């Protein structure tokens, strides 16, 4: 995808924020992708559930939440738009799957969980929401290009422009609308807000090496009920990672 991805080993952590911000003592899902970046060499994908401590260290946890983590549907899309599902199996403190890229190009690693229970805020006077969460990352195989088009309902694509990062946000295959807000979390978890222009794009300048999380939210305001629990809207959230090296 970018010059950042030329390194021989890639480690991608994509944090899926469910109910708490990353900078507190929170619980979250995250995805770890490792590989050599070479053709015909396996790529390992692992998804965890755990606590994010104040120091930023992620500690995997076991229990009911880890079991529910297996409900994420993971797929890989190659440069020609061909999608393949990745079978994930519970392994130790996370869920694990692999794929082997057969040709050069930039691969999209995608995840969706549309089986989360309704977030019940009725006891505190809040509004119930049904969360739908997307995971999104790019994996370059002997290639320095970028992803060309979106592949899921909410999606984000990035492109390096010198020292800057161009961010393209999409909803249902189309560029997100003018002034849509994105949130960027830097490696120290400081937050910056980006506002999309008329082309559905925004630019930011990374200030340090490490993992950046770019978040896009959109809420479908139609109420409904899921598994017997009413909700006022469906909150769609896409979290995309960018590893700056």
Write down the Rg: 17 Å
How many helices in DSSP terms?
1
Record the strand order, biggest sheet.
6-5-9-10-20-17-14-15
In round numbers, the mean pLDDT is: 85
- Domain count: 1
What's the overall geometry? globular
E-strand count: 20
What class would the helix/strand composition place it in? mainly beta
Uncertain segments are 1-25
How would you spell out the order of helices and strands? EEEEHEEEEEEEEEEEEEEEE
Percent of residues in helices: under 10%
Strand content: over 45%
Distance between the termini: 13 Å
The major sheet is characterized as: 8 strands, mixed
Keywords:
245 residues; mainly beta; eight-stranded mixed beta sheet; six-stranded antiparallel beta sheet; 1 helix; 2% helix; globular; disordered N terminus
How would you characterize the overall build of this protein?
- This protein has 245 residues and is mainly β.
- It has one domain (3-244).
- The chain has one helix spanning 64-69; strands spanning 10-17, 26-35, 43-52, 58-60, 73-77, 83-86, 89-91, 94-99, 105-113, 129-141, 154-161, 164-171, 174-175, 181-185, 191-195, 201-204, 210-220, 224-226, 229-231, 233-244.
- Strands 6-5-9-10-20-17-14-15 form an eight-stranded mixed β-sheet, with no helix packed on it. Strands 1, 2, 3, 4, 7 and 8 form a six-stranded antiparallel β-sheet that branches.
- It is globular, with a radius of gyration of 17 Å.
- The model is unreliable at 1-25 (pLDDT under 50).
């Amino acid at each position: 995808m970018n010059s950042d991805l030329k390194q021989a080993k890639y480690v991608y952590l994509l944090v899926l924020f469910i109910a708490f911000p990353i900078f507190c003592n929170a619980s979250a899902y995250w995805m770890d992708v490792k590989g050599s970046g070479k053709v015909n060499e396996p790529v390992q994908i692992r998804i965890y559930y755990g606590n994010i401590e104040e120091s930023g260290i992620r500690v995997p946890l076991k229990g009911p939440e880890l079991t529910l983590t297996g409900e994420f549907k993971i797929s890989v899309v190659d440069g020609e738009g061909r999608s393949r599902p990745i079978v994930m199996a519970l392994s130790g403190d996370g869920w694990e799957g692999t794929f082997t890229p057969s040709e050069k190009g930039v691969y999209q690693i995608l995840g969706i969980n549309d089986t989360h229970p309704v977030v019940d805020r009725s006891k505190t006077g809040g509004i119930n929401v049904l969360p739908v969460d997307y995971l999104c990352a790019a994996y370059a195989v002997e290639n320095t290009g970028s992803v060309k088009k979106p592949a899921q309902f909410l999606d984000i694509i990035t492109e390096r422009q010198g020292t800057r990062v161009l961010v393209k946000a999409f909803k249902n295959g189309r560029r997100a609308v003018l002034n849509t807000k994105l949130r960027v979390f830097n490696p120290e978890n400081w937050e910056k807000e980006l506002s999309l222009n008329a082309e559905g794009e925004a630019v930011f300048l990374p200030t340090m090496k490490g993992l950046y999380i770019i978040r896009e939210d959109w809420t479908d305001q139609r109420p409904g009920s899921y598994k017997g629990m009413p909700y006022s809207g469906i909150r769609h959230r896409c979290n995309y990672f960018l590893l700056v090296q």
